[in-house]
Amino acid sequence: QASNNVPGLAVGIVKDGQLVYTKELGVANVDTGEPVTAETVFRLADVTRIPTTIAILQLMEQGKIDLDAPVTTYLPYFQLRDERYKDITTRQIMEFRSGIQDSDDIAVRWATYPSVTDEGAVERYVRGMAEKSLLFYPQLLFAPGEGFYGSYHAYIILGDIIQKVSGQSYEDYVREHIFAPLGMENSTMLLSEVDP
Predict the structure, then answer these.
(1) What is the per-residue burial (b if ≥16 Cβ within 10 Å, else e) of 140-173?
(2) Which strand (E) or helix (H) includes residue 174?
(3) CA 162 from centre of chain
(4) Is the pLDDT of residue 1 over 50?
(5) How many other C-beta atoms lie within 10 A of the C-beta of residue 122?
(6) Are the CB atoms for 27 and 8 separated by under 8 Å?
(7) pTM, to two decimals
(8) Mean of the per-residue pLDDT values for the chain?
């Protein structure tokens, strides 16, 4: 996929619960030419929205989350500079209708953002959303529920809701309630758990 700057990928097709096709293409390391194999580690990136959404819906089914309650119901410290933040609901974040807008060049900004993976990182991030940031704009793009914009960073708010409602860290919740039941033994939310 040279036209898309994709150096390598691995494909797996599952039919009726059985892996029926696999193919590894390209390189895992552009400097060394090391090929992609079935054991190559890929970052989850956008795919993290899937376990996050599943976790929110699991907790909703258990009666622990009302999707239409304001985010501040679960995170009283959540705030933005735009006063309309008080109206943002969990459902609106999941449906990309919260109005939270990421920065123009999120990939470049994220690469230089100080990454912290300790247990309190998600809450600290949410607590800091009212501060000036390189990752998103302090003003909402539109009133909550009145537009559509897929914000990467709004989903971090959902991660913090999962932590507060479940009493587990986001990573532990996903491992125990999603990855383990699915037999995803080689998947993790923490880069520190990956064999370099």
Answers:
(1) bbeebeeeeeebbbbbbbbbbbbbbbbebbbbeb
(2) helix 170-174
(3) 12
(4) no
(5) 23
(6) yes
(7) 0.81
(8) 86
Which of 156 and 138 is assigned the larger pLDDT? 156
Q: Residues with Cβ < 8 Å from 132, sequence gap 6 or more?
A: 138
Dist. CA 163–CA 56, nearest whole Å: 10
- 3-class SS of residue 12: strand
Backbone angles phi, psi at 92, to 5 degrees: -65, -35
Please name which of 102, 186, 106, 180 lies closest in space to residue 139, comparing C-alpha atoms: 102
| Residue 47, CB-side half-sphere exposure with 13 Å CA sphere | 8
Tens of pLDDT, residue by residue over 23-81, are 999 999 899 999 999 888 887 777 889 999 999 999 999 999 999 999 999 999 998 88
